Amino acid sequence: MRKLVISTVLALLCAVPASAQKINLDFPGLADRAEEVVDITLDASMLRMAAKFFSNKNADERALREMIGGLEGIYVRSYEFAKEGEYDRALVDRIKTQLGASWKPLVTVRSKKRENVNIYANMVGEKVTGLVIISAEPREFTVVNINGPIDIERLSELEGQFGIPEFSSKEGKRHD
Amino acid sequence: MNLENDLKRALRRESPPPGFAGRVMQRIEHGEVQRTRPAWWRAAAASVALAALLGGYTAHRVVEQRRGEQAKEQVLEAMRIASEKMRYAQEEARSIGSHD
Question: What is the interface pTM, i.e. ipTM, of the complex?
Answer without folding.
Answer: 0.77
